[in-house]
Amino acid sequence: MIVRTLDDIRASDRNVESDGWVSARLLLKDDGMGFSFHVTTMFAGSELKMHYQNHLEAVLVLKGTGTIEDLGTGEIHRLEPGVMYALNNNDRHIVRPETDLVTACTFNPPVTGNEVHDETGAYPADVDARAPVAATG
User: Fold this and answer.
1) How far apart (Å, rounded) are the C-alpha atoms in residues 28 and 11?
2) Does residue 36 contact residue 4 with C-beta atoms inside 8 Å?
3) Of 119, 130, 109, 127, which is closest to residue 51 (Cα–Cα)?
4) What pLDDT does residue 124 have?
5) Residues 6+ apart with CB under 8 A from 60
6) Cα(5)–Cα(97) distance, rounded to whole angstroms?
7) Mean pLDDT over residues 2-6, rounded?
8) Which of 52, 37, 38, 35 has the alpha carbon at shortest distance from 95?
9) Whole-prediction pTM value?
10) 16: nearest Cα among 29, 26, 3
């Protein structure tokens, strides 16, 4: 059984901060659950363009308001407490928090810990999670 407190995670190296957000990573790959679980705050006034090419993500809004834009369709959805969105097709998107947005997020495959978005808006792929490449020749 794994039991952790949000306060303990926020005071540890599992609390990762980047431009426009901070993520308390309660479960990571090395916990062996097959997914990672985070409480992430996206800061009011930021514009977060993301494209998780190597992960699927589901997000539940716990507190705050804003919008998410699907860059593939142009659709804009309202974010408020109780709204869940799932990036089931590695969807390119922009989150625009009007107030600080506090969310609970899961990632599959799980992140390893210190990932931040690269220039494309993705987290890097976990090299250890890739299938072995068959030798040729």
Assistant:
1) 16
2) no
3) 119
4) 60
5) 82, 83, 84, 103, 104, 105
6) 25
7) 97
8) 52
9) 0.84
10) 26
CB–CB of 9/63 below 8 Å? no
pLDDT tens digits, one per residue of 30-46? 999 999 999 999 999 99
Please give the single-letter amino acid code of residue 35.
F
More confident residue, 51 or 119: 51
pLDDT the model gives residue 130: 41
In angstroms, the CA 107 to CA 117 distance is 14
Strands (E), the chain: 15-18, 21-27, 36-42, 48-50, 56-63, 66-70, 76-79, 84-87, 93-97, 101-108
